[in-house]
Design brief:
This protein has 410 residues and is mostly helical. It has two domains: 191 residues, Cytochrome c-like domain (Cytochrome Bc1 Complex, Chain D, domain 2), CATH 1.10.760.10; 142 residues, Cytochrome Bc1 Complex, Chain D, domain 2, CATH 1.10.760. Helix content is 37%, strand content 1%. It has a two-stranded antiparallel ribbon.
Amino acid sequence: MIRSIAIYAFVLALATAPDMDAVTKERLLKLGPLPAPPTDPTNRWSDDPKAAELGRWLFHEPRLSRNGEVSCATCHQPELGFADGRSLAKGLGTGSRHTQSLLNAAHQRWLTWDGRADSLWSQALHPFESPLEMGLSRGEVIERVRAIEPLRTRYESVFGALPAAEDTKGVQIAFGRVGKAIAAFERRLVTGPAPFDRWLEAVRAGRDAPIDGFGADAIRGAQLFVGKADCVRCHTGSLLSDGEFHLIGVPSKDGGLPTDRGRLDGVDRLRKDPYNAASPHSDDPNGARARWTAATQPDPETWGRFRTPSLRSAAASPPFMHQGQLASLEDVVRFYDTLEGATSLDHHSERVLEPLALSEQERSDLVAFLKGVHGTPPDRTVWNDPWPDRPPELVQKTGVGASPQAIPGP
């Protein structure tokens, strides 16, 4: 009988969360809810419904690639959290980094792992010209938009007539507008309230008991997150990311020393990008984003650093880290707990992490918390493929510069 009572008391202790002190409560309340995405003055069409609808068509169209088989949705699959489930991205070829989720990307100041883009629309243009992703020139993209009837009519209803192929300046402008339409679509890929947000609502009202979807284990994990584990050092604010760049020593995928220059190369590409926020293609070339870009200078100290990912969409898009080195949330927590296998580069690594010495229960609680911060995904009507039965023929099978025959839409 005494043994049964002891076992019951032990189980009860595991099923409850410790009392929350005022400091812990204050830290937690700063983590939610997630507001609407900030406005983007560099893209005057960012909240235009017709531009967003055009962007949805562009996002799903594989014929805007060299082989007619790769679209934005190839690497950003809705059912995989708008990522691809692979360690390394794969388009026309295999890349060197893991595909990041697009969920809540409109909240980010810098885009991609190395921050080479300062807006959603400039980032959306990069894959078209990458030989490992979609592999087309700017002129070819515009010619294919012209050739595919649903794209042409929707483009012209938003932006006006497409330029002639020989109009170089017009093609450059039209290419930028393709990115702006895709960005208008991607701004809609936001998550709704997570179980964590509903629990925070209750905490604000003076109730910190478990709720549906956010149990005692997740509550304990939340307190660890802002307390002993100190995850908020980098995963802070309502996005659960500081938006900055760090080198934390995650082991390379091949087990060797890291060779990816990360943020150092990202800054160089950002400043040279003809579609950055300070460029003539920006709708706010003298605004705050443009000034941030102009003020961003290459710094050798940023070698190998990568942007802190938001945890708001992490649970939906494994594997994790910039090469997809860690397969599960459990692996991520285990790495931060032990730093087992961490690489050290004397001149570049940051001294921000120390082993945490967590118990197995604490690791499990942190994982429960991470699962509880993933919000409701956007409604299918926002992101579904508008033309699932598109004809299989390629717009342009070979050659560069030839005008393909127009393909009618549905």
